[in-house]
Every structure is written in C-alpha cells, then in structure tokens.
Amino acid sequence: MNSALQFQSSPYTAFMQETKVDLGNGIQLHVESGGDPKNPTILLVMGLGAQMLFWPDFFCKSLIDQGYHVIRFDNRDIGLSSKIRHKGPRLNSYKLMGRFALGLPNDGAPYNLYDMADDVALLIDHLGLGKVNILGASMGGMISQILAAKYPEKIEKVGLLFTSNNQPLLPPPFPKQLFSLIGKPESHDEDGIINHSLKVFKTIGSPGYINQMEAMQIARKLYQRSYHPAGVLQQFLAILCTGSLLQLDKQIQQPTLVVHGSRDRLLPPSHGKAVAKAIKGAKFELIQGMGHDIPPHFIPQLSGLFAHHFKS
C-alpha cells in the first residue's frame, strides 16, 4: 500500500480504515481498506447508485478472515466521492433505454462506464496495489469487465456478482424492479427517502430474507452519510451510453467466476449466464433464492465461493 496516504479509523466498523484518494483526473474517491496489506487484495466495485456500504461489513470481514486485504470505495457521483456537475442538455432516458435494448449506440452522458473503469485503474495505481483481484456487483461488474479487458496487467482474477454485459436482446429488467431503482421518493424529507429506499430493497432484494428493522437502519445510515439522487441518474445514463460489453468480454483472459441469484428480477439470471458464456473459461454459479442484494443469509456461501476462486 502507498504509505503516503493517511488512513483514519472507519466510522462504520472496527476492522476498516478510511481515506480519500485524489486520482489526478479531477476526481477524489472515498476508500476503506481492511486486513493485512501484505495479503492478496480484493477490490470491491459497487453498483448503480450504491454507496460502498452496500458491501456488507460482515461480507468484508469474512473475506478478511479468509486471508485477504479488502478495499471498498464510493464510485464517482455517489457517497463521499466527487460529484460530477453536468451542464449539458437533459437526456431522455426512455429513448436511450429503447436504443440500448436493441444494441444501438447512445451518447451524451456526462461520463460512461469506461471513465468509471479508468477511475478504478487510477485508484489501483495511487494505492500502489500492483495486481488485484476484482469483485464487481451489478454496474460494478460491468466496470470490472472493462477493467479486466483494458488493464490486464492490473487484474489477477475476476469475480462478478449479479451483473450483465448488456448484449442486445437480453430479457429486460422487470419494470417494477427497474422503476423502483430509478423512481423518485414520494417526499424529500428524511422519512420519505428512507421509505423509498426500503421499497427498493424489498423490490429488488432476496424474497423472504429481508429484515425490516435492519433494512431501515441501513437506509437511514446511507441517507445520513450522503444523499445525491442526481448521481444515481448520471450513473444510469453512463450504463445506457456504454452499451454492450460483449466484444470486450472476448478479450478477458483472467480466470473469472460469475455468480447470480435465481430470484434476481432486476437483472434476470440469463444476464449472468450471457457474461459467463462470453468470457473464455468463465465459471457460472447460480444461488438459489437470492435476489439482487447481499443478505446476511447468503454471505458465508458468497464469500466462500469468491475467496476460493481468488485462491485457486
């Protein structure tokens, strides 16, 4: 690890430390790391509109306990990382979504997933990590696919969780799940926003595994840490303006494990299967009963699968 960086204790867990990393491209990322820096690193990349705390503490801890140095961070435009102020014309997301589904190119977003992948490549350099194992969830999995293809010298192995390569004609997200994610809360006070978050957790999460009290505490913690809906929309536009990653997948040489939940209705399992099929030698694992989230019930199984993959 780069010893010039000043780490402080994380306000969330006893076993992580936090710092800000200036990437030199106008972006600062908020980063937490835990475990022994001499151990192999797993870099966790989160999904659309999701702060790094969506990587549950218990998940990070179980990877640390299995002998890894674990890093999670807020992507640009979310959490405590830099926000992108965009002055360009407003884009019609419905029009973009239609073109995206058919595999037609879109442009005009303030940035795309290639820019976000460059952020992560710069983060690896600035932290002095050498080669890392990358584990990306959802949009973070898309960013991880780009990283593995574009920066093979930085990525040892690849783990992908409930993600897609956005190739044309994959089954679209179920409308209820998609609109819960990009919809607006009924009111903009703290309770209105927390109720909205709870609805989202319930709609996209693993049916039967959502603990109402716990979900509420998490929603409040996330809201108090940072609330920036404009960033969520801009990240969504970044996905729509990146398009299919199918050709990139064909360039990925690293050992890759793709894991998907059988009850995922935001990105149905065929998305994960498409990714695994496109990456040479990739393994695919379907988790029965899991949705588009990481509930405590599935953490031992998930962390075990990925820890084993990165070791083997």
UniProtKB/TrEMBL annotation:
<dbReference type="InterPro" id="IPR029058">
    <property type="entry name" value="AB_hydrolase_fold"/>
</dbReference>
<feature type="domain" description="AB hydrolase-1">
    <location>
        <begin position="40"/>
        <end position="169"/>
    </location>
</feature>
<dbReference type="Pfam" id="PF00561">
    <property type="entry name" value="Abhydrolase_1"/>
</dbReference>
<protein>
    <submittedName>
        <fullName>Alpha/beta hydrolase</fullName>
    </submittedName>
</protein>
<dbReference type="InterPro" id="IPR000073">
    <property type="entry name" value="AB_hydrolase_1"/>
</dbReference>
<dbReference type="GO" id="GO:0004806">
    <property type="term" value="F:triacylglycerol lipase activity"/>
</dbReference>
<keyword id="KW-0378">Hydrolase</keyword>
<dbReference type="GO" id="GO:0046503">
    <property type="term" value="P:glycerolipid catabolic process"/>
</dbReference>
<dbReference type="InterPro" id="IPR050471">
    <property type="entry name" value="AB_hydrolase"/>
</dbReference>
